Amino acid sequence: MFNQWSKVPLEQWMYFLSNSEIPEDATAPGLQEAREQLKVSKLSRAEREAYYTHLDNMRSARNVVETARDEGLYEGMEIGRAEGRAEGRAEGRAEGRQEAMKEVARQLIKQGLPIETIISITGLSDNEIPF
Fold first, then answer.
1. What is the sign of the dihedral through the CA atoms of 27, 31, 36 and 39?
2. 22 and 35 in contact (C-beta within 8 Å)?
3. What is the pLDDT of residue 21?
4. What is the pLDDT of residues 56-65, one digit of tens each?
5. How far are the Cα atoms of 76, 89, 108, 127, 130 from residue 98, in angstroms, in the given order?
6. Exposure letters 95-110 (e unless 16+ CB within 10 A, then b)
7. Which of 7, 39, 72, 106 has the highest local Cβ count within 10 Å?
8. SS (H, E, C) the chain
């Protein structure tokens, strides 16, 4: 009866705290992390220092990558905004020119000029002439 491993998390933790070991089939929440820390604590001092140095290097590398990614995203957004503004200004200018030519066409129509002449002067197509 006492040979079986307990499925009760509290009893699994009590076993770990009493014996400084964790059976492989332990399932209590947090014991997997405790198992990893137990492995580290059993390393020699030099191995532990090398392990922590490795973790620091990995954190630094991850931070470099994340910072570069964030800077790239920011730069991309800024470039996108600038391109969008330039494109918007160009479209606005084109629309403004189109509207100006339509106004010129209206005035020329009032003056009684032939449609072919208005098309030639404004560059508008027959469909774009405001009647």
1. negative
2. yes
3. 87
4. 999 999 999 9
5. 32, 14, 15, 13, 11
6. eeeeeebeeebeebee
7. 106
8. CCCCCCCCHHHHHHHHHHHCCCCCCCCCCCHHHHHHHHHHHCCCHHHHHHHHHHHHHHHHHHHHHHHHHHHHHHHHHHHHHHHHHHHHHHHHHHHHHHHHHHHHHHHHHHHCCCHHHHHHHHCCCHHHCCC
* Residue 128, C-beta contacts closer than 8 angstroms, at least 6 positions apart: 98, 102, 105
Question: Contact 13/28 with Cβ under 8 angstroms?
Answer: yes
The reported pLDDT for the residue numbered 23 is: 86
The single-letter code of the amino acid at 109 is I
